[in-house]
Fold:
Amino acid sequence: MEMATLAIIMAGVGAVGSIQAGYAQREQYRLKAQQAGLQAEREALEYERKGNAVLGQINQANAAAAARAYAGGVMGFEGSAGLVQSVTEKKGGKEFLLTQEGAQTARRAGFTQAALFQEAGDTAVTQGWFNAATQVGMAAYSSSKIGGPGMTQAPAPVVDLT
Structure:
């Protein structure tokens, strides 16, 4: 087997390896994207859990204020007891909204991160194909320089000196 033939075969093997490496890297990025999405969802659920805890605290505080008022012989949802409950609901409501915004932000960040990983995976495949094409092109060029398989030297130009 001539060296030129061997070089072409090795370039073909290298090209296939580059393509496979690109697809393997895309799979790794796909898994990272999936992991980023799951992590974001876990963070969002934690924010929602905190929001539910805030709602529970608001109910507990309002119930305590109403109980104190009724125990004191006044209406539990009017007057100063009603004012305490209103302030509790406003402050708690703001805190609850912050937890909901945190959940939405976590989901958006996870979606963005996952999209970036997906894009990186597609780029890896494209890069694998470009590397393969480059390897084959360089092998063809080198083969033509050293006289690859089936290549013959072009005949010298005929010059008529008559």
About this structure: The mean pLDDT is 89. The helical segments are 3-71, 79-146. Residues 3-71 form the longest helix (69 residues).
